[in-house]
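Readers of this paper often ask what the protein records in our data store actually look like. Such a record has a labelled line for the sequence and another for the backbone structure tokens. Nothing more is needed to write down the fold, since each code stands for a local backbone conformation. The remainder of this section carries one protein's record, kept here as part of the documentation.
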Amino acid sequence: MKKILSILLVAALATSTLVGCSGSKEEKPAETPSTTEGETQDEAPTETPEAPAEGGTITVAAIETAYGSQMWTDVCAAFTAETGINVELITDKNLEDVIGPSMQAGDYPDVIHLATGREKALTETFIKDQNIVEITDVLSMTVPGESAKVGDKIAGGFTETSLTNPYGDGKTYLAPMFYSPCGLFYNAGLFEEKGWTVPATWDEMWELGDKAAAEDIALFTYPTTGYFDAFFYALMYSVGGADFFDKATNYEEGIWDTEEAKTCFDIVAKLASYTEKTTPAQANDQDFTKNQQLVLENKALFMPNGTWIVGEMAEAPRADGFKWGMTALPSVTAGGDSYSYTWFEQAWIPGGAEHPDEAKQFIAFLYSDAACKIFANAVNADGEPAPAIQPVLGIADTLEGDNQMFYSIYDNGAKAAMGNFAAYDSGVVGVSNREVWFDPVNSLVSGNMTEQEWIDGIKSANDQMRASLIQ
């Protein structure tokens, strides 16, 4: 489940490391910490390590997660080899505790890789205090060692979201890192067998739903209503773009009375009528795989999910000729934008950084082919593959198997939808976003709630949430 992904993204080793990356001229493969080329050199006193290149030194602090820390060591070494700028690397699973005291004393890292959404909210604090260096100019910088511009390499949508542009001023302050796309998953083998085309618009989706119903196949199912967050976020983007999404997720007054909101409500309500009727009874944490099984057995065509679905259902039975397929949400109109929601992390430069110009070079290098390869070949502390995929166009060409298909979604015209509902005092409101927006889908499918009742509940809660926003 996607909750597993969130856990994996914040899991890490229990010990901290402080690593100074040398200026090796060779690109090192991602290896386990016990077998790195650097450690081999350290253990061989008869050899003289190559002197690091001259060019100053920056400090990079990176959260250590399930991807392991070795990939950061290797990327820093590659950066030094390319630019002559040395790197002191700090990694720890509790990065805030390691760098917090020194920052209070005025000693800041030059680059910090730490995403929003963590319990200690350090990144959010820097955003709120407007203590993050603007990096819009990085997008027009040439990637060190390449001829391409940074902005030309990053996939569409990743620098057009509140997660990277938090102040709504059209400027970028946080760099997008390590992402996982979500979308509608289906049996590509069935589509090939039937000669069906994956719908590009919702009108085509309804036509396919009628065609499938004639063969006793439902158009849609979902594991649990919790999976409607990524679905609904992508839908809001496709209907009204980032502007509508930002207003809606910040509970703007009257936003749910707009034409964009009505379109979203109507699509979900109509999709509920095309949903396999057993879905609500199985849409819980114990039986959700039964709903996923509906797609594997050709009893339903589409379900919202994430790339982890392949491993989650690896041992499940399936129809002959089954092949995983994944698509973005259909567009509202022909030729309109289609979106796939994605989770991603962020890197940024604190306002107190001593070497902001060199820090910008480091961030630019994170999108180089060399860095992307190191990240994609990452292994964790146990030596298991733990690929960290950068949001770079064409990255899918370097991957294998299903991952190649999943991560090519943004190369094939889809845009990335990002962000979520703003935080509010749930103790005051008494309900969660899921309870208001997504859980009612079960009742829409079963017929126990009308679309208007669902809308009325959203409008009421929206006003309470806006009044209880956490500033």
Observations:
- The CA atoms of residues 135 and 411 lie 24 Å apart.
- The mean pLDDT is 86.
